[in-house]
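Worked example 2:
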Amino acid sequence: ESPWRTEACLQLWYVHANSGRIDEARPYLDQLPELSAISAEQLNRLNRPGRELEDHYRSLGRGLHLLKTMPAVEDAIRVHRMLGFKQPEVSARFALSRHFNGMDEAARDMVQRAVALKKMSTITPLDERTLNTNLELWSLIARSEQDPALGEVQQGWIDLAPADHSIALTISLDRARRLAREGRKEEAITQARSLLQAPQATIMTFTGAALLLAALDADPKHEAAKAALQRLDQAPRQVQELTLINRLLLHSLLKNWRTEFSVEILGQFLSLAVAGQDRENLRSRLSRLLLAAEPMVFSLNHLLEGPNGQNLLKAIALRNQPFRVSIHELFYIILRRYVVFTVFGTQSSAEQMKLAADATRSWLNMYEVGKLTDEDFLLLLEHLPEGESCPRLKTALPTWPSSLQAAVRRLHLSR
């Protein structure tokens, strides 16, 4: 491989990728040799001031993009390795994306390498954060009763870490989930309650414990949920999909959603899919929508009602089905209720509810397989209630799959 050819491909890839033109950058990335064949000097030149390149690639597998197939995540993993990120941090950033792509074995391999045992005296604050994230990710990709390696690694860390260390507490929550899955409800409740106020518990641990107690009917007055949200308000800022999902569910348990909460949680989750100034622009766009969207607040406050809502809570809190399935169900329920309330109001017939369900399912299915763009998704979120009376939606509608066109038209004809 000619060093001049490698250098030319590197520079052409960098120019395109650093400006966010990821698709145009891919042919040059594909022509690069293996990482071991690129010189340290060439790689060092990539680490220029600013985080634009890193941010562009990291956003490929985040937020809204978790609702669709994301082949570009493999590019992002390769680029992060080129930029010098170590295995634990690459795993913490992209194992979830691989899981959502259905690549569970590849995701599991990433996290297994990332949580190798090491002396507690050598663990830095960054190591601690990434270890906790990767242990949590492994437990949502696989269950310890079905994956002996996960149970062995958990026990290894329990033997190494003090009982009140955040790593031990992360593992304790997953063991409480396993107790619940095995029908040992009282033991699971006792263990979850001990985690709520543990000073070193991570946000994922104490919010996850509160959700587990609610799912096990052990918190009828939602005192644990209230305590978790109060503690979250005092915790260091952390913007990550798993913590945002837990916050969303806690507010739905308490039915205390307000429009500003939907901007802070739902708007933030969706906007993680883009980078830099584009993220700020999308946040502004979502804020304008969500601050005026009382139907979204109504939808979120009713999210966990009925058998479907309770089953969803149990699935997420106990991890008793693949996490990607739970999150797709979560957004289906949110958007279906949102469509019902925006199109028909709070009083709707069974037939209208079925039409809303059909339109929402088609919307999410088409987005998942790449037949709708990010812009199409947002256009539906903003203007589906208006139907073809909205010029932008009327223009876009004929370009979409016929099944979605028909579902949207049937929805509005039934008003």
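The first helix runs from residue 3 to 18. The two ends are 65 Å apart (CA to CA).
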